Amino acid sequence: MPRTAAAPPARKVPLRKLLRAASVARGVQFGWALQLSLLTPYVQELGILHAFASLVWLCGPLSGLLVQPLVGHLSDRIAPAASPLGRRRPFIAAWPATANDAALHIATSRRCCCMLAFSYCIFFLQFV
Q: How many Å from the N-terminal Cα to the C-terminal Cα in the chain?
């Protein structure tokens, strides 16, 4: 009968490390709670009908479905393998900045659209 190797004893995880991991999860949950409670009223304030608000909810999963494989492919092809940061870390570091920029654009979209429409009206009225 063959002998099987005994499993190594489980390491005890320090409480400080568990609290750090739990604080990250808590931050993610706060973010989801804010999004779930505020997104639909906010997009309705922007003029999207309640019936189409569910399409706004689909944007996140659909963009993840399309963007994540594309970013993985690009990071494998574009980033140099000998980079001290590795192939994926520059892309992972750039993503929060891009998401933050997109969130700021969403927050100011009504004001920006009004200014853009006003500037187009001024531009076209010059030629009338």
A: 96
Say which DSSP state 11 is in.
P
What is the distance between the alpha carbons of residues 42 and 86, in angstroms, rounded to a whole number?
39
Q: What is the distance between the alpha carbons of residues 100 and 109, in angstroms, rounded to a whole number?
A: 14
The tens digit of pLDDT for each residue in 84-113 reads: 877 778 888 888 888 888 777 777 777 777
Distance CA 26, CA 20 (A): 10
- Dump the DSSP string for 45-114: HTT--GGGHHHHHHHHHHHHHHHHHHHHHHHHHHS-TT-TT-SSHHHHHHHHHHHHHHHHHHHTHHHHHH
Q: What's the predicted TM-score (pTM) here?
A: 0.47
Phi/psi at 98 (nearest 5 deg)?
-65, -40
CA 110 to chain centre: 21
Tokens of 11: 């390491």
Q: What is the pLDDT of residues 17-30, one digit of tens each?
A: 888 888 888 888 88
